[in-house]
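Sequence, please.
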């Protein structure tokens, strides 16, 4: 017992001696001029410590700091680069003798950082690394590498009311980032410690507010950092944001192998607006270009609710035309990404697709879409594509196949066109250069083929047109019977090529029980103009379509023209050809009558 008492007395005496020595003979304020002078020599900046430095003692030893400011380079506005209202650092005294660091409290309050970029390109960071910085770093690095700590314990870290002002004088913009609070609870190696933060930002075109909480753990050998249960909620508001406001929430866990420079993130749930997702991300940042592997599963995506509303034609006409600029894809050169993505459904421009499965790779400035499968209007979509961004103007190529798609609802949803119905199969291969919308249409070179079965042309009833024209040529001017403007067919096939924005279809062919149609034409993607010259012929009769058992025009080719636009196609028969066919019919009848008459007169020969 006496030994313990003497030991305690000795410890108390040592602490008292240290306290007396520090307070009586070691005033930290005596070093303020030296600190200010050292900063001046190293950076050329003015360091001001307005408040007196003060000690804290048992059970912790520490220094209270206040009224600290560091100036920006001369001529900058604001003059101060850094201002700190109060900073406190307290370290437990006794564990230091055991090569252990126990930080009772680290706190920072009321810090303001002004980072200025001037019109000439100079910034607040210029001059902060003096000539002596490298020399000074070497012994410090050696000292830290030789030092060994048995343990680290932190009672808590608190950062409050910290503001960063990023001022760009050339753009006349100021972005304000505010860390309202950051707290780290009691921390020790190999144990989870709670963390929480609250953050906001004000930028020229949007505001951001975010808060989160979770827990972290650092391994004793400082090689593994684990973050669990991290939940972050963020709200973004601005005119350029979909619906002017976007709320996101993410729950994740991450592991960082500090020695191997590898990171893995397991995202349990991600929500943005009405979109939900989950997935995994792996990053190897030991390489010059970090390698990223991601696998995401996404729910329903309705992009129509996120995209801005289409402006009216009048507003579009009044707005000045913006000069078209190729998108800058140079960032792709700094990516090495592999992404697997599944999506339950995607709706965009009123077009609905389901069950997306996509594999994407980005490396050396080339984006490879190796596979994209999706369900499309009761059919299947299969696409592979590549975008090469190694040049200033990107180039691309693709191979697209569509099978078993119901074409009528697809056209109505995609382009509000009610022109065609049936089960469609479609394949096309193409390539081009430039990603500007107008240049995409002009520069695209493509070839393809299509066939549509058991369908109909809407907006025209070709048998009725023929019947009506034939009746009028015979003098029947009675009103036309009202029938549905639709022409049924069993098959519609053709091939096409695309060049300079014009699709050329040289072999359009349509067949049905009543008629045959064949010909060629063009469709201009730039103007949406149609120009087709076709011939149609009746197989036998128009019976069932208002015709007789034996139609006079059966087997006769009748020219048909399709003009107008995709939205409003126009159909016209060549009535002159009908008249010639009618005259030929009457002439043939007269010849038959004359022949029969001569045969009778000759006794039946």
């Amino acid at each position: 017992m006496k030994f313990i008492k003497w030991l305690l007395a000795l410890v108390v005496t040592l602490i008292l001696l240290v306290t007396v020595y520090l307070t009586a003979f070691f005033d930290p304020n005596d070093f303020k001029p030296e600190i200010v002078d050292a900063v001046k020599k190293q950076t050329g900046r003015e360091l001001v410590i307005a408040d007196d430095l003060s000690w804290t003692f048992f059970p912790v030893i520490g220094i209270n700091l206040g009224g600290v400011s560091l100036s920006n380079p001369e001529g900058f506005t604001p003059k101060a680069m850094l201002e700190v209202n109060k900073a406190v650092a307290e370290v437990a005294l006794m564990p230091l003798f055991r090569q252990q660091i126990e930080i009772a409290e680290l706190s920072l309050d009321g810090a303001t950082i002004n980072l200025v970029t001037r019109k000439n390109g100079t910034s607040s960071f210029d001059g902060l690394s003096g000539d002596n910085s490298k020399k000074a770093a070497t012994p410090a690095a050696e000292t830290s590498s030789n030092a060994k700590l048995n343990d680290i314990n932190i009672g808590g870290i608190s950062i409050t009311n910290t503001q960063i002002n990023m001022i760009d004088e050339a753009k006349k913009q100021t972005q304000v980032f505010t860390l309202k609070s950051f707290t780290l609870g009691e921390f020790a190696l190999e144990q989870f410690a709670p963390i929480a933060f609250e953050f906001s930002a004000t930028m020229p075109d949007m505001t951001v507010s975010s808060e989160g909480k979770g827990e972290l753990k650092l391994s004793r050998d400082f090689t593994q950092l684990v973050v669990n249960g991290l939940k972050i909620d963020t709200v973004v508001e601005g005119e350029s944001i979909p619906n002017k406001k976007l709320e996101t929430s993410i729950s994740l866990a991450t592991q960082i192998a500090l020695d191997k420079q590898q990171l893995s993130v397991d995202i349990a749930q991600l929500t943005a607006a009405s979109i939900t997702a989950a997935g995994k991300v792996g990053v190897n940042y030991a390489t010059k270009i970090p390698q990223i592997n991601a696998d995401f599963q996404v729910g329903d995506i309705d992009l129509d609710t996120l995209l801005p509303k289409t402006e009216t034609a009048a507003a579009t006409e009044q707005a000045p035309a913006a000069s078209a600029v190729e998108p800058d894809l140079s960032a792709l050169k700094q990516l090495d990404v592999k992404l697997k993505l599944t999506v339950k459904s995607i709706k965009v421009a009123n077009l609905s697709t389901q069950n997306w499965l996509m594999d994407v790779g980005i490396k050396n400035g080339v984006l490879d879409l190796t596979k994209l499968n999706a369900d499309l209007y009761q059919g299947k979509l299969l696409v592979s594509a590549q975008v090469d961004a190694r040049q200033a103007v990107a180039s691309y190529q693709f191979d697209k196949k569509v099978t078993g798609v119901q074409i009528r609802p697809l056209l109505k949803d995609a382009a509000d066109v009610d022109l065609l119905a049936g089960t469609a199969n479609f394949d096309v291969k193409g390539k081009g250069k430039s990603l500007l919308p107008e240049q995409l249409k002009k520069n695209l070179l493509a070839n393809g083929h299509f066939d549509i079965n058991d369908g109909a042309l809407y907006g025209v009833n070709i048998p009725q047109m023929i019947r009506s024209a034939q009746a009028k040529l015979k003098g029947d001017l009675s009103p036309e019977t009202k029938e549905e403007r639709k022409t049924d067919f069993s098959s519609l096939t053709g091939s096409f090529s695309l060049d300079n924005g014009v699709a050329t279809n040289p072999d359009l062919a349509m067949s049905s029980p009543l008629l045959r149609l064949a010909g060629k034409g063009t469709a201009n993607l730039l103007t949406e103009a149609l120009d087709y010259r076709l011939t149609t012929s009746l197989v036998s009769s128009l019976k069932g379509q208002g015709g007789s058992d034996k139609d006079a025009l059966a087997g006769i080719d009748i020219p048909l023209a399709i003009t107008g636009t995709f939205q409003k196609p126009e159909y016209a028969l060549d009535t002159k050809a009908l008249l010639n066919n009618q005259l030929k019919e009457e002439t043939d009848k007269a010849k038959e009558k004359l022949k029969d008459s001569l045969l009778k007169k000759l006794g039946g020969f």
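The chain has a mean pLDDT of 80.
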